[in-house]
Amino acid sequence: MDDILDSIGEAIHDFFVDACGGLFSGIFDDANAATGEIANKVSLTPSAWNPGVFATVQDISNNVVIPIAGLIITYVLVYELISMIVEKNNMHDIDTFMFFKYMFKSCTAVMLLSHTFEITMAIFDVGHWVVQQAASSISNDTNVDVTDIFNNFRSTIDSMDTGQIILLMLEAGVVGIAVKAIALLVNVVLINRMIEIYMYCSAAPIPFATMTNREWGNIGTNYIRSLLSLAFQGLFIMVIVGIYSELVQNISTAATDLHSLLMQIGMYSLVLCLTLFKTSSISKSIFNAR
Prior knowledge:
The chain has 14 helices and no strands. By secondary structure, it is mainly alpha-helical.
């Protein structure tokens, strides 16, 4: 009878050990997929991320926003002409060069307006190149093979009683749910960045229409700063991925037991998520964009 009970107890113990291994092997599946795709998703240009959305944004910019920008640039140029004449002692100190200067600024303003979308896309092409170069500099893989780590601690788990294994399974389940949520938030950050880029691109002609005027030019200048901050946000995301890849490579050697291993998995994933949310504000502060 005792042998039967021991066999049943051993079978239950082995069942929970295998179940615990299954939880461990699934903890990082979503996080590995999310972090592994960050470089590919961040490096995409607006036209490559979703061609259908890009075509819609381009049509709105060309057919809806450019006519409004045309009215704004007309007002700005007329305002500048009046201001230029009035500044010269009510036309008493006028020289012919000021009209050449005015014509040059007018032609420049019209040229900028007619090539707004190309200039905007060129900024993100630069950002695309920067992200690709940063990705090639990351030597370590962001993938964590939790199965191998679990196998290293298998002897420790075998020595635990059933109650301790159940407690460990509960911890692994909580961490696994947290990691799945963090993996989802990583995708939310990347999608939100691209949607913000599309919104900025759709209204690009309006700030470009103000760039050649001294009083109104701060609108266009701040817009360019915002575009640069969005383009280079991808660089800061790649810096975070590089730091994360260095940290996770030592996760198996730094952990002394399975409890600390679980805590490190959750901690690194949480830090990755929180810092991704801060990349937008960091980039804007560097480029002084509002």
